[in-house]
Amino acid sequence: MSPPPSASAPLAGAVAASPVGEADTGSRSNSLPRELSDFLLELSVALHKHAIYPPGHPLLAQTVDAVHELLGALLQERGALSIGVARRQLIIEGVATDAGHPLLAELAAKLHRHHVGAVKFARGIDRAELSDALSVVGLEPQRDAQPLGMQPELIQSRWVNVKLFPLTYDRLQLLDGEEAGQPAGGVRGGSHSAQLWVGLARAAIAADRGGLSDDASTDVAMEPEAVAHAIDEHDREKAYDQVIVGYLLQIAREIRVEGAETAGLQKRISALVGSLQPETLQRLLEMGGDAPQRRRFVLDASQGMTVNAVVELVRAAASAEGQTISHSLVRMLTKLASHATNDSTSRGPAADRALREHVERLVSSWSLDDPNPAMYSAALEHMAQNEAAPLVDRTRADLTCEPSRVVAMGLEMDDIGERVLRAVTTMLDAGALAPLLDLLDAAPFPAGTLAPLIWERICVRDPLREQLAESRVDHALVRRLVVRTGPAAARPLLETLDRRPEASLQERLLNYLSLLGPAAVPAISDHLAAATPALARELMACLAKLAPPDAPSAVSEFTYHPDPTLRREAVRLLAGYPDTREEALLSGVRDPDERVAYSALLAAQAGCPESVAVVIRERMNRDEWEELAVRAAAVRAAATIRDDATLEWVLSRALQVGGLLRRTRLAPPTPEVLASLNALATYWADDPRAEPALTLALKSSSSSVRAAAQRERASTMA
Fold first, then answer.
1. Burial level of 432, CB count in 10 A (0-12/13-18/19+)?
2. Left if phi > 0, otherwise alpha if psi is -120 to 50, otherwise beta: which for 186?
3. Whole-prediction pTM value?
């Protein structure tokens, strides 16, 4: 599919490291890979076409195919693809798009108008689900209807592999260009700097699911400490972090130039950096793109932030780069920062300049190779690690040695001793479970005698349940425990899903269940009957991802559940298995809820059993389905049975007799009629009985009717 003229510019310029779209002649351009740029452009074109063409139009099918092909290639290398949404930019894999690119700026603006803060595509998304998502998101928000981000039930239950994350910043005053005269927490709204700060605060507070109370004032929400607290305490999707990283990149570039307009932004972003936890700041810097872009960010920030914030940034950047800064150098930088801040004499500005110059030289030198020969560096490292230990009393029963070192030596020799077991207990009592797992992962004899014994001692304390019971879950540690525990981890995860309904936590737990593979299917199936409707829906979606070899028997009961969303998930799942496909499709097409029937009709397009086709034709003849998309899907599903009865039925949907001379002519071009013509061109193009309808269609003045009847185009859509 060829992009429209506005998208014909070189793709390398469409997505750049400069979030504000300014040229940076002093740094190397850092662009997204070509495949990500192509996908974003194709996604923008697809949403635009879904906004202007009616459902069932052939051009929509072509653009859905193009997006699905590009997305499938991207998801082969990734478990999921997350896209953060700023007001006029998208943030993907730590890089922000150019705000001046017309297609990508319009895509970001459309999602922002829907109050969507992030979009996530998961591996396993099929064409039908993608098409439905594009048709919903492509429509512009109406004044008399709520945006998608304000309809949580819709965006949480409609799709399995497409997730929309809402922006819930209703507690913040909306400071845009048209409200330039209104102040907000000391930041002037008419400037670009003010908009950047408000955008960052929105992203942080929207992701904080329990930080501020509903009656918190705008001024409090805008304060750097409140924003830092929200970022520190967040527990959400990677896409939200990408939004925050995008704003940080923009702000760093904005404050390079000193002025009255950026002074307030400099103070606020400096206070924010100083209030963030070191590990949070390091994580954000790690997400900020590749090493050159990270260094560019630190250099930009070092020219505009306060000296204390610069020191914090250097520490975090060193950790992200895998570099080591000596304590002496840190003390020197801290001393310079103290003089620059507190010394009112001429030494203050001199210390300020010296600190920024040292930071620039330090960050630039991280890319240099080690000047020492390899053998010399190895000798220095050996000497540093083998300093003479102080003399100890050999008669003491308990030598002074770190428990981790004792465990490491025991694992190296695979030797079980009372001292090693006491060290393991000491580490567990001190909460050092993660370092203990690190030692087990690095053990030279993982299947020896000591490593399994240590793991048994860990399991006695039931660490997975302990971690899941914490108010703030350490997800990195939980993931490691789940992988090590295997199928037995399914029960604690399911119990936590029952006990803690937080949306962000539930999604993480469901992902952990997916890590267990088909071995977790029995536990999930047993848990379905007692689960709440919302959880049962998510568990069935999880089962679909796990793809067990046989259909879980517990799912069949949900095809008759009062909740239509559960019936829909059950039909989707059971339709994927030969033994349950026909019964599931029959249940779906007979369902009174059109959403359930639509899911069954989409599944039936891959091959419709005769019994299902009979029900489809009967319901269509009785006009029991009102939605145009449902009726079109019904025609496509029933037409997969290529017999005479089906041909006559399809012709009856495409043609009608009317006028004074009672001539046969085409029915009005509804999606149902277009689908009928498409089926005739796909399956019966050489049949003389279909020729009159196709001939009339090819002579039609409607381009959509002619396109549906063209055999080559129809065959590509099939």
1. middle
2. left
3. 0.46
